Here is the input.
Amino acid sequence: MTEEAGRTHEATDLLQHLIRNRCVNDGSVSSGQEQRSADLLVGYLEGSGADVETFEPEPGRTSLVAKLHGSDPSAPSLTLLGHTDVVPANDEDWSHDPFGGELIDGMVWGRGAIDMLNLTATMATGFRHLAKSGFRPAGDLTYVAVADEEALGTHGAKWLCDHARDDVHGDYVITESGGFPMGGADGTPRLPVIVGEKGVYWCRLVVRGTPGHGSQPLRTDNALIKAAEVVRRIDEYRPQAQLHEAWVRFVEGIGFPAEWAEPLLDPDRIDAFCDEFAVVGLARQAHACTHTTMAPTIMHAGTKLNVIPDRVELGVDIRSLPGWDTADVRAMLEEVVGDLADDVSIEFESEETSTISPIDTPLWDALERVSQRFYPGAKTVPFLTTGATDARFHRALGSVAYGFGLHSRAIGFEQYGAMFHGIDERVDVESLHLSTEMWMDLARDFLV
Here is the structure.
């Protein structure tokens, strides 16, 4: 077995164990229990020569930090940032056990295989082999595996950035996801690099009514009926598209055919294009990247089957574009609620604006250089992710933070996008190989 094949085998095995650890984060403080995967990673990195430390802000919510100290305090430092928690999965929906970590026909199946245990495992593998080889970077190389990314990072990256800044901070940070090869019209591979993310405004709408007997519904003040109308209005709300710099540079750089690129760069045509475009995954991404979106996701109503409900709580997931703040989001919600305003209150659970890192940086150049080994002629293109990542906490510390990895072409774009928090999540072993080798090449290129 070659050294590269050995590293790929290690990354695959490590990913399987991370999946089987079942660190499911449902948003409650006691969920996740990422200590299981932190212990696994401590054992894996033991004896590598790196300094390893763990942090546990709440029982079982453990994050790991491993470091190779640089020889030059003035040199730029790099942090590889993964997370070990995953979202829930319903066994009945999957073709294979979502927590079995099975290797089937060159694919590792399981919750987190794409989001993002694959990168967490390959980062650890690359880091371990760099450390064991005696690699001494000019600037610090840090590997971090955090808890709680899937619930806003309160007990993970946010806590570490607030309480252990010197341990986790890097001038440059790489986390999920990026690096999925897309072919332009000229056949040159394009590799998206996540340069920013939308803002997160999770909110609760409290809809009020008047209780009454369920046997006499005529002309009652039913809060559930009002809430249903609010949901309908959210679904039908159509704000004007806004084309920010990262989106424009993505479309111009990816090499789409003109019949796609032209409407994707026209705020007056993009909505119709997304409504009609056959590639649903791309249509959803294009719409989300150019609109502040609202998705009603949770509703709690009623106390008893025969009682007209007087209170409904409606959870709405709002993701804002660059430049939006709380006042803008509230104004949008008030426009949607309209004449029901007297019976609906708006309570924000999260108020985080969009964050973006600059594109023209030494790390950007290094990613493009290193990618050539795996995809000759490849070009990196910026992309704004519609979901939240832990990069935002590091941007707040002044870091340039990107999302990247390296994937093969074994999984198509439509499948890849659908697997985030979706069904039958899996990753191919070749992608694990590519990412592992890329992390090592990047460290040797960027940190010397």
Notes: The chain has a mean pLDDT of 95. The longest strand covers residues 199-208.
